Model the fold of this input.
Amino acid sequence: MAIRRFLFGPDWRSRDPERRLRALGAAGDAELLAALPRIAREDPEPRVRLAALKRLDDPRRYLESARDDPDPGLRAEARALALRQLAGERPSALSAAQRAEIAVEVLDEAEAEALLRRARDREVRAALLGRARRESVLIEIAAADPDPELRRAALERIASAEALERLRRRLRGRDRRLERLAAERLEAMRLAAGDPAAVAAVAERLCRRAEEAVRSPPSDPAALAAELESAWKALALPEGDPRVPRLAGALATLRRIAERPATREPRPCEEPRASAGTTVEEPAAVPSAPEPEAHPADAEPPPAEAGQEARELLEELRRALDEGALERAERAAEALRGRTLGREAERRLAALRGRLAELRRWKAWTVREHRERLLAELAGLAGAGLHPDALAERVRELRERWSALNAEAPAPPALEGRFRAMLRATLAPARAFFARREALRAERARAVSELIDRAEAVLADTGESSGRSAAAALAVLRRELAAALRRLDELPPRERGALAERLRAALSALDQRRRRLAVAALAHKRELLLRLERAAELPPSRASQELERIEEAWRRAGRAPPGDEPGLQERFAAVAARIREQAAAAARERQERERQQVAQAQRLLERLEAAGDGPPPEEVERIARELAGLDELPAEIGQRLRQALKRAREAAAARARTELARELEALLDAEPSAPASAGDDAEEAARRLLVGLEDLAGLESAPEDRELRLRARMERLAARLAGGGDDAVARARGLLASWRELPAAVRASHRDRARRAIAALVLRARPDRAGA
Done:
């Protein structure tokens, strides 16, 4: 291994990407670790670059490749790796604090928001929270983050009232502490903006708090009065607001309570109300008779049971009067009426009846006062600019409070009519909104009804389809039905029950249909698995083709039941991986064979190019036979080799023609073999010889030599029929051998004609036989 590394270098520098990839997956040396950043940037193979990135274990490198790498698949994978590592979803040597520092340093706003939602470490989420700007992201973190402090920090970063209102609705019933903080911030924001509804709500709350303190005085009434007055001044209500005299009277009563001696029990009738502008008269103070001391001599013991019951009723009456509960006091006093009591009990009952009369007068006064306040509040709603729903809710609350007062004491008919007329006038501007909302709800109800009709039509179709498309259509239809069921509050209240029942029935039927499709998909996928396992035994090329067809059918088959789908997918993936591995092995073998043939073709090409003017014809034909045995050559190399072979053949043929011409010229110019005299026979022999050469060369002879030409052709035909062949070059050699026997004078006279015939014969001769 050391010798191989010395000769060829380390595997991570190999030209083979597979070898480089394997080298990066193994334990690397210091040189490899130092070269990892360069490999991740510059290696031509995307898989090798990705493997180097994973070895680096640096989110900064991941994000750099996600922005700059030329391969889109690697960019997406690098970005996913960076987010997974920074989110703590991937093992890493970096601490949470380091990941938080890197995330703040290198992520843009969109990436920071995506990581903020999925990061597992609190340090990372806390660092990225400062980068979040969109209120939807802040709302999501404030509502769903597992860390209470981060939820509160996200809430404090929300700057709009609308977003705070959305967050408050999401927190309702889930996190009361955070819901209260959101409501306080929302109220403070609306107060700062001068929202009339917010100012009215705070003012009403202050009034109720002051009135509750009047009914049940606190331990420090003066401090509470000062606190309420400070908050009231911050509201800066106009003087004409009906709540101004209401709170002023309650605060004055609180101050009077604070000025009383600590030993004296406060009485409602001793708290005169200085309410400027009110028309309700204050009841006169009625001193309450002190409860007499009990003397043993005055006691007349009643029967044991009756005395015990009377004492309990007297005690109940006293507690009810102390608590200001008029109904309970009335019931206790009515139960004591007509009973025979002792002198002590009679004196106590007389004192308590005086207090009861005082409480009745106080209650009557407070009921009238409360009715006037309700009328003033109702009058103030007209210009408060409330949303119609808020206005209707406020009117409902006022109506309930009015009904509660009527339960204590019925209102006079005139006052009752006034209240109802003001209710109608207050709600009149909102009626158009409610009418439009009802129309919109009716339209939505029609849409939901049409959706249910469509679902029922699909369910009524007996010809059930199967496959992924049918399951996807049913899934889409189910999502629409589920969404409609979640939005029932957008429908008219009188139709919600019936539509909800139809929606649930359609959902149940759809679920049954989907279960049947899943069972059918399970059976089909099992058949496909059997086909795939049989295909794995086929040759790799046929197995790959069958795998493509089965994969397409698998995708169209849909999903099996949830309990069976993972196992099917795992089995399918295992068999498919085996087929692909076999195909990859066959491809590697084919590539190796192609590589060897390319190397052999390169050697043949070098042999052809090294031949100079051209190799001998025998060498050319051997190369041609070897080339015919190479069946997996790349097109470019095969084309180059065929062109080189063609040039070699042409060069060999040209050289053979040159040698043939030289040989025939030498025979033509050879010295006579024997002396001969000129004569008619020599001339005739020369003419026959020349006609034979011209016939072999395909030249036309002179007209006077027509008979000689015909005779020469007959001789050639006879020789061919006799099996002697028709080798023009051999016959030309024989004719030129006879040329030497002609006299020099005859040869000289016909030399030019002979040369023309030889030249034509050389051009006509076949290259592969030119040297024969």
